[in-house]
Predict the structure.
Amino acid sequence: MERGGKLANELQKGKDLDDVTLLREVMNTVGKYGQLGGAIRCVVSVSMLTEGWDANTVTHVLGVRAFGTQLLCEQVIGRALRRQSYDLNEADLFNVEYADVLGIPFDFTAKPVIAPPQPPRETIQVKAVRPDRDALEISFPRVVGYRVELPEEQLKAQFNEESIMELTPELVGATETRNSGIIGEPADLNLVHTSNVRASQVVYELTSHLVLTKWRDPGEQPKLHLFGQLKRLTREWINKYLICKGSTYPAQLKYKMLADLACEKITAGIVRQFVGTRPIVAVLDPYNPTGSTRYVNFNTSKTDRWETDSRRCHINWVILDSDWEGEFCRVAENHPKVRAYVKNHNLGFEVPYRFGSEMRMYRPDFIVLVDDGHGDDDLLHLVTEIKGYRREDAKEKKATMDTYWVPGVNHTGQYGRWAFAEFTEVYQIESDFKARVESEFNKMIAAVSAKP
């Protein structure tokens, strides 16, 4: 006897069947003519949206049982409302997405909103073209730190424009404020009183901070015998390279964050003086010391991109962050001294640097292989930054590249010759912009080619 007939006989005998038995019978006979589930053509699987659920295609949430707490209601809805697409639209915003929530005992939306499904955005695969373009591969070191051994008998410093530090309200914070209570006369607060601090006190305290933070090895006592020499260099730096603007004063270098910035510039000047005579060692990642363009492989839907010349770039596409970078690609691909280039996007090329008391990672824009007269077997690796307005952090990045990263990598002798250049003048928008970019690019190539 078939299952449907057996169930019918039991019903005729007056037996009571529970809902679970009926539901199981319906599911067992779906689509079978003449049986309990024979009229069913569609089965919807219903699940409780609990921890671990991460479906991004849920469009309807239906509450069909009682919820014990309000929090459980919110968890169910929260786990269902995953975005279907995280691609940004033309306005650099997410497209609006909606889900219908029914039967949940609180008002989640005022009224239903019809949101037509968005067509999928075009995506491309950015990758290294192998093996066709393997001759254009660019390798680079993964630097995690620097080690410098400086002389202790006589210290000197070579300060330059990168040593200049401007104290401004943007860096220091508000220099004037009005304090008003509910009652009583308001009071104007400012930092004018710091102008009365003696210059010798500022020099002394900044030198003390320099000795304790920059000239002290871990687990060792500070090198107090260097205090006199460092004090002389600190006074020179304050007198010539500290600029105070907008009601700021040298005494504000007592703030630890500003003192760290000042000490970095003084130390960089000392290191710069001994570049070439004292080795600067770049400490490489012991687990992954070398990066390469061959490992680039990712998908993107960004429309601002440049299709590279197969004779100049190992990667098939350059993802642009600005129109200036597109113009840079055009000039680089047509320049007679450029052999290859790559945009630092998902490349893994990072430069550690310190901004005040905080360690940060700097990601330059491009690496360009330049024939500077040493032949194709000894090309110059030119790290290029396209920069407009230079804030204090940009100055620290350049100082780190010139003083630590480039000398340290060149000292290893494993990755060829490296140099760094900032490409800044392109941000002067003119009618002959393309000619301007090409002119500045030629100046940059000529400058690095002229170095010994």
Q: What stands out?
A: The chain has a mean pLDDT of 79. DSSP finds ten helices and 20 strands in the chain. The first strand starts at residue 60 and ends at 62.
